[in-house]
Amino acid sequence: MEEKRFSWKRMGLVMLLTVLVGVAQYFVAHQFNDGKMSQKVYGGIFLGMALPSILIGGVMRLFRPNLQRYFAVSAVICLFTGLLLLLL
Q1: Which pTM does this prediction carry?
Q2: How far is CA 88 from the centre of its chain?
Q3: pLDDT tens-digit profile of 7-59?
Q4: Rounded to an integer, what distance in angstroms lies between the CA atom of residue 82 and that of residue 13?
Q5: pLDDT of 2 strictly over 70
Q6: DSSP label at 72?
Q7: What are phi and psi of 2, to 5 degrees?
Q8: Average pLDDT over residues 72-87
């Protein structure tokens, strides 16, 4: 039987995956921008961090709907932060 309650361990693992994607995107952006990082670049990095969570969460919705909410929370946090950085 699947658990329906919230698990901090699962949320931590999803956030770790998201942070690892963000670190990789940071190094790629740093390389291509010759080290010139602006607020808009950081906003783009956060929007890029949301993409894997959206894709993986969509697949999880088909097979394990209770795990999909962790990816949804991660995607919403990254989207909000990215849009905030881009618009300010």
Answers
A1: 0.85
A2: 20
A3: 899 999 999 999 999 999 999 999 998 888 999 999 999 999 999 999 999 99
A4: 21
A5: no
A6: H
A7: -80, 145
A8: 95
> Residue 75 has which token pair?
């995607």
CA distance 35 to 50: 23
Packed helices 65-87 and 8-32: angle between N→C axes, nearest 10 degrees: 40
> What is the reported pLDDT for 42?
94
Distance CA 54, CA 69 (A): 10
The radius of gyration of the chain's CA atoms, rounded to the nearest angstrom, is: 15
25: amino acid identity, one letter? Q
Burial of 14 by CB count in 10 Å (0-12 exposed, 13-18 middle, 19+ buried)? Answer: buried
Amino acid 4 reads K
Q: With contact defined as beta carbons under 8 Å apart, do 10 and 71 qualify?
A: no
Instruction: Determine the length of the chain.
Output: 88
